[in-house]
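User: two proteins, same treatment. go.

Assistant:
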Amino acid sequence: METGTTKQAALIIGAGDATGGAIAKRFAQEGLIACATRRSVDKLQPLIDEIRAAGGQAYGFASDARKEEAVIKLVDDIERDIAPIEVMVFNIGANVPCSILEETARKYFKIWEMATFSAFLVGREVAKRMVARGRGTIIFTGATAGLRGSANFASFAGAKHALRALAQSMARELGPLGIHVAHVVVDGAIDTAFIRDSFPERYALKDQDGILNPDHIAGNYWHLHQQPRDAWTHELDLRPWIERW
């Protein structure tokens, strides 16, 4: 939240219609300026309008987090023109199942770029700013694929394992410098239009709290950001009560 009159920004990389958007709304609700990114800025406009209509501050950016120059410019622009980045949430998805017998080198590399390399680029750039201030929160959205590799998910599992390792390494280096780095394992179907349309039987479990509510995920991200440094959580698992694990 804002300290005195000092403005603070929450950078949400991958502010989609469900989890990422809910996270942006929650941080804006708590007084931070939500800076949301997607590949297409037009898709962000409904989210930006909703946040502003509720009294919050928000800006949308078209950004390809796989491109180093674009990431550097994004962070520089926000820090110069909007506010210091107090929290960064990396929420880019790359879940594309495929048999290892049919997987292509191009797609394998692209999934790694999306889920891992882009996380490194954004994490590095915001960490530089946060370390100079001696404070900040960096949260990476992970998945069960980062804990175990299931059949037909070699690309996704490899990328998410690497993301988890990146988060651990950054936490061990940056924690003593005042930066809280966390990795969130989101395990289960999320209340999205994709789940509703593609997996109606799973979506029917919504009334039983059988799928994840994006607002509840966002609440946990806010909780991580609020934790005092004598009791920081590095890894948090979020899953519905009926989910097998």
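Protein 2:
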Amino acid sequence: MAAVQRGRDVVFMFFGTSWAHAVERGFMFSEDRLSGALLEHPEVRRVLVCDPYRSVLGVASDAVRRRTPAPFPSSDTARLHQPLRLRRSDPHAPARSVARYEASVRRAARRFRLERPVVITTHPIVAGFGRFDWAGPVTYYAFDDWSASVPHRPWWPAFDEAYSRLRTEQRRAVAITERALERIAPTGPSAVVPNGVEPKEWLELGPPPAWFAAKAHPRLLYVGSLESRVDVEQVRATAEVFPDASVTLVGKLLDPGHFESLRALPNVEVHGTLVSRDEVVRLIAASDVCLVPHVRNPLTEAMSPLKLYEYLAGGRPVAAVDLPPIAKVKGRIALVGATEDFPAAVQRALDMGPASEEERRAFVAEHSWQRRFDALLELALAV
């Protein structure tokens, strides 16, 4: 690896969220964490954080609903850029839109007097279609495989073209799994950097929320987006094999119909509300087994499940489908093979029991976001 030039200026661009939304959801996901880390990383001199395009109507709607955006900690070393446009969603043919977006970012960087800034973006289309002749090296941080995401299907051709351009320009790429990196197939410097945890969140685990404390043992818990990646048949089978257990699924309910068949089961609760980061920690700490009952498809095979690291940070045993990124993680994990039923893994996880406090804290230290982003920036800032 080439030497890192200390004190580089950085332009960071979101894809799936904005700064205000990242704050609102408690810096829950990878790109949220990275945006915050750049503000205080010793190798970063100044950073311009850029929201994706927002529509004028969307901003006006927030004002009508009196949603006050979270303040950005502006300073001599950090600024926020919030570009606006008329249309709500990205076009399927994005070249002109990316050119306008890049021009607005370039103007903001000039106003901030950034010197040949390094560009780090989680936006695959911007990473590929942007010219960035005014900036330093460009690194694409792939925290998911968007080319396998069904909600993003209309943009799949644009993703393919963006990856092709990224390869032509020999741009740098960091992905959360080997499979996600293979999908990009970069020709420039690259690295695999999995998800992690924030140690400060896991120092003191705290008591469970009252509604969860009232549930029967063993408490079986899933935390994450409630959508089609969850194998509801495996959840149903688990609830039926363990009728005295409580099975709780917690997260934003993105696909209500997908979980309708579970509502008739007396020991299953679909808690379809996004909870705070503090509550996530306390839920995990009070569970007996945590679950990763994902379906097997290209999207889940390229994921680095954030929930898995959080489950283990809480010292909980885990029952999980045997997917490549999960199998690489060391910890109290009972893997479910392709021909095995999920309840059998749940029983093995129950038999394992929780980790000791020493084991739990060692896992947290080894998989901290700081270590993850040190590895990412070693590549992105290299001269």
